[in-house]
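hey can u check if this looks right to u? its 219 residues, i copy pasted from the old doc so theres a chance i mangled smth
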Amino acid sequence: MKRFFHPSFVRSCGLLGAVCLGGVLLAGCSSTPTTYYVLAPQTGPVASPVIQAALPQAIEVLTPSITSRLDRDGLLRVMQDAQDHMVPAAAWSEPLGEMLGHALAANLRQRLPGHVLFSQNDSVAVTAGAYLELSLSRFEQDVSGHAVITGVLSAHRAGAPDSQARAVNVQWVSPQPVGTKPADMVRVLAEGVGVLSDQAIQLLYSLPALPIHEEASSL
């Protein structure tokens, strides 16, 4: 049996469809473009001549390992009820682990003038005499609004036994709450990476020295 619809009903459906389509187009046009952020290098105190003399000439910063919850493009903000939220329209300009490695190497390069500091997978024709590693479990803004960096920092000399490796827990919290803008969070987290860089130099300095004959053979 054929069904016939009143013309007013047909016009209403057509109008409704146009409104819905217009809503979709409007939402697409009004979407905010994503802004990409990078961790800026942080200046810090230059290591003393005694510390610099004790460190290997070349140091490699291995790509930091991060937990799955941090392995995302966006900036992480923890809200109430232990909920993770991604900051709208904001993302890292490269994978977070790689960016952290580059930031650490840049910070250490400024603090250790005359030494060769490079990140893992960089094309550098030298062999590292020591390696720095960072494992991160938190790199975010917490529920109170502070920036938080938590993880483990470790170091070892090339060719040294595992028993001579050194590691320390790192837990840095920004002195003041972070502002509401994503750029504020990125800036403060970069400052925290600068603090970790200072700790990294002390950790490298604490490594046992290789025997003289082993140091000579490694050159």
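Residues 182-205 form the longest helix (24 residues).
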